[in-house]
Amino acid sequence: MDEIVDPRSADGPSLPLASGTPGDGGRIHDLVVRTIGQWVLGGSYAPGAVMPREDELSDMLKVSRTTVREAVKVLSAKGLIETRPRIGVRVRPRDEWRLLDPAVLSWHPDIGRDDELLTGLLEARRIIEPAAAELAAERATGADLAAIENGYLGMERSLPDDIAGCCEADLAFHRGVIAASHNIVLRGLIGTIEAALTATFTVTTELSKTQAATLAVHREVFERIRMRDKAGARKAMNELLDRAAADLQGDALR
Fold it and tell me: What residue spans carry the region label Disordered (predicted)?
C-alpha cells in the first residue's frame, strides 16, 4: 500500500504552507498551487507517491476543498501530479514534469539548488539564445536595438551596488535579444528564458563579480547585433553562456 507522508514532518526541505485572509482568494489559490508544487519538486512526495486526500490537504493547508481541487487541476496540467481512480492524487514521473513552465521554474529557487535542472537549462539556452542573437543581427529594428542597449546600460548603471537592479536589466537584455529575433516561436520562450536566468541568479553567490565580469561580453553581443554581424552575434552569445557555465560550476565547488 502506498504510504502518505505529511511533508511537515518528513525529512527534506521545510516548505511553507499557504496563508492568507478571506478577502484574497486569488492569492490563496496561487499559494496553494505553489506550496503543493514545491512539495513535489523538493522531494517531499517522490514520483509515484500518493498524496493526502483532498480533505486532508484542505486541513493541512487551512483552505477550502474547492481551493485544493482547483490547485490539483493546475498542477495536473503542469505534469507534476495526476488523479487516479480509487488511488487519489499521485506524483507523476519526473520526466513528465513540465520543467520549462515559467511558474514551475520560479518555484525552484525556494527549495534549493538542483544541479541537473540548472545544467539542463543552460544546455537549452545554448540551443536557443545564440540562434536568437544571430536572427536579431539580421532582423532587429531600431526599437529592438534600443531595448537591448537599454538593458546593457541598466546593468552598467546598477553595478556594483544595486545587484537586484542589475539582474532586472540583465533579464531585459536577454528578453530584448529574443524579441529582436522576430521569430514567433522564440518569442514564445521569453518567459522560460527569464525564469531560467532568475534560477541561475538565485544560486550564484557572488553576483556582483559575475555580472561585472560579463558586462563587456553583453556589450559585445549588442555591438555584433547592431553591426548586423550574424556570426559575431552568435559567437558573442556563446561566450556569454560559457561564462554562465563557468560561474555555475565554480559556485557549485564553493
Answer: 1-23
Question: Which of 238, 233, 206 has its CA nearest to residue 220?
Answer: 233
Calpha distance 209→196 (Å, rounded) = 20
Question: Rounded to an integer, what distance in angstroms lies between the CA atom of residue 240 and that of residue 127?
Answer: 13
> Interhelix angle for 190-203 vs 115-139, to 10°?
130
3-state class of 48 per DSSP? coil
- Helix (H) or strand (E) segment spanning residue 82: strand 81-84
Helix (H) or strand (E) holding 84: strand 81-84
- Distance between CA atoms of residues 229 and 242, nearest Å: 20
**Which residue type is seen at 99?**
L
Write the CA distances from 2 to 104, 141, 192, integer angstroms.
26, 58, 34
Complete domains list, the chain, with CATH: 1-109 (1.10.10.10), 111-252 (1.20.120.530)
3-state DSSP call for residue 135?
helix
CA separation for the pair 172, 68 (Å, rounded): 35
The reported pTM is 0.71
Determine whether 216 is exposed, middle or buried from the number of CB atoms within 10 Å of its CB (0-12, 13-18, 19+). exposed
> What is the pLDDT tens value at each position of the chain, 254 positions in all?
333 344 544 443 333 444 444 345 568 889 999 999 999 998 899 999 999 999 999 999 989 999 999 999 999 999 999 998 888 999 999 999 998 787 888 787 666 667 888 888 888 899 999 999 999 999 999 999 999 999 999 999 998 888 889 889 999 999 999 999 999 999 988 888 887 787 777 666 456 577 777 899 999 999 999 999 999 999 999 999 998 888 777 654 44
The three grid cell numbers given for residue 47, joined into one nine-digit string: 514520483
